[in-house]
Each structure stands twice: as structure tokens, then as C-alpha cells.
Amino acid sequence: MSDRFSNNMEIRDKIRGFYRGENRRTAWFITMVMIVFIGSWLFGSGNTLILWVKQGRELKRQERQIEEYRRQIEAMDGSIDQRETDLDTLEKFAREQYKFAVPGEDVYIIE
């Protein structure tokens, strides 16, 4: 544990020496350039990290929506297949949805 603490102190002393030594102007210049670069990458206009995150979320939302539409399409295909093969189901669907009736039959529509 003490080795780790002494290593941290050594690293901190080296960094302080770098910013206070003879090359301090270069160190501060590099630091400022990096701050500007990282700030523009995070918050600047155009292709930024925040935009990437938003677009990633939108992509996931749209993928979930596509899966939901696929499930609905499969359910509708099953319903269509059932109506094509079973005449009783087709008749029930036509009566309920389109108010079809057999000639001479009384139909009461309750809404």
C-alpha cells in the first residue's frame, strides 16, 4: 500500500515539475490545445460525441420499432392465412368489419 502511495506522489511530483520547469510554456500550450480539442469534440457543431450518443439511441429506438412492425406483420399474415383457408372465419370477418349480410337477413348495427 505504501509503494502505491509513494508511486502516486512521484507521478504527481513529475507532473508538477513538468508544469513548473523550463518547458512549462510548452506544457501549458499542449494542455490548452487538448482542452479546446476535447471541448470541440464533445460540444462543438457537427460530428460530436453527444450527437453520436443521440443517434445511437435513435437507432436503437427505430430497431425496436422495426421488430414491433415485423411482429404485427406476422400476426396479420397469420390472420390472412386463416381467412383464406377457413370460410367461417372469413364470413365472420366480413360480417363484423364490412357489415355484410345474407340476402333477406336483418342486420342491427350497434355503435
Task: Lay out the secondary structure.
Elements: H1 2-20, H2 24-43, H3 49-85, H4 87-98
Helix pairs in contact: 1-2, 3-4
How would you portray this structure in words?
By secondary structure, the protein is an all-alpha fold. It has one domain (2-86). It has helices at 2-20, 24-43, 49-85, 87-98. Helix 1 packs across helix 2 and helix 3 (49-85) crosses helix 4 (87-98). The longest helix has 37 residues, at 49-85. The chain is rod-shaped, with a radius of gyration of 35 Å. The protein starts with a helix and ends in a 13-residue tail after the last helix. The mean pLDDT is 84.
Q: Distance between termini?
A: 79 Å
Residues in helices, as a percent range: over 70%
The percentage of residues in β strands lies in under 5%
Radius of gyration: 35 Å
Structural class: mainly alpha
User: Which segments are poorly predicted (pLDDT under 50) over 5 or more consecutive residues?
Assistant: none
Summed up:
With 111 residues, the chain is an all-alpha fold.
Features:
111 residues, single chain, 4 helices, mainly alpha
